[in-house]
Amino acid sequence: MEQNNKLSRKTALGITLFGIFGQIAWCIENSFLNLYVYRTVTTKLSVVSAMVAASAVVATLTTIIMGWVTDRVGKRRPFMVYGYIIWGVSVMIFALFTPDNMQNIFHTDRNKAIILASVFIVIADCVMTFFGSTANDAAFNAWVTDNTTVSNRSFSFCACFGSLRFGFCSFRSFRYNRKQIFRLGRKSRREYDGRR
After folding, report:
1. Helices within the chain (DSSP H only)
2. How much of the chain exceeds pLDDT 70, in percent?
3. pTM of the model
4. Is residue 16 part of a domain?
5. I need a labelling partner for 179 at 20 to 30 A (CA). Which of 34, 70, 129, 137 fits?
6. Residue 31 gets which letter from DSSP?
7. Which of 124, 141, 151, 105 is nearest to 6 (CA)?
8. What's the rounded Cα separation, in Å, for the pair 16 and 31?
9. Range of the domain at 93
C-alpha cells in the first residue's frame, strides 16, 4: 500500500500555527518569565533556579505520562487545542503574583509577601508547564508524527523550527526597533571588516 506523501493544506497550516503558538509560549516562559521574577518579585536567584528546576522536572514527567495518555485515548487534537488555550491563560496569571498583591490579599509584611509570591510563581510555572508539555511536547509532536510520512516530515520540522525562529525574532523586535537593529548590523560589520 502506497502512502500519500503530500500534506493537505489543513495539516500544513495546523503544523505551522501550532508550531508558532508553542514556540512563542515557550519563548515567553524560558526567556521572559525569569526576568519578570527577577525584576518584579525578588532579586534572589534561588527563586529563579527553583522555578527552572521544578519546571524541568514537571515538563519531563508530563511529556512521558501525557504522551502515554494521548496514545491510550487515541485523540490528540483535544489535548492540543484545550492545552494551548489553558497554557495561554496560565501565562497571564503570573501578573497576579506580585509582593504588593500578596500583601493586600494575606495582610502580611513585605518579606513574607515576597516568599508567598515566590512560592505561588513556582507553583504557577509548574501548572503552566504541565499544560504546555501536554499540548506541545506530548500531543503536538505525536500528532505531527501521526499526520506525516517519512518523506514529508522534513516540512513539519522546517515549519516548527521556522516558527521557533519567528518566536525569538518577534520578541526581540519588542526590544529593538528597526533603526537600532540596522545600526547594530552596521557596527558589527565595521568591526568585522576592521579585524580582517
Report:
1. 9-27, 34-36, 45-73, 77-92, 99-106, 110-132, 141-147, 153-175, 178-195
2. 75
3. 0.74
4. yes
5. 34
6. I
7. 151
8. 22
9. 9-195
CATH code (residue 148)? 1.20.1250
Reported confidence tier of residue 159, pLDDT bands at 50, 70, 90: low
- Number of domains, the chain: 1
| Assigned domain for 4 exists | no
524541568: which residue's cell? 56
Angle formed by the axes of helices 77-92 and 9-27, nearest 10°: 30
Q: Are 110 and 178 in contact (CB under 8 A)?
A: no
Nearest to 128 by CA among 85, 166, 90: 90
Task: Tell which residue, 167, 189, 154, 149, has the closest CA to residue 18.
Answer: 167
CA distance 120 to 142: 31
Q: Is residue 2 part of a domain?
A: no
**Residue 20 pLDDT class (50, 70, 90 cuts):** confident
The pLDDT tens digits for 49-91 are 999 999 999 999 999 999 999 999 988 989 988 998 998 888 8
Is residue 127 domain-resident? Answer: yes
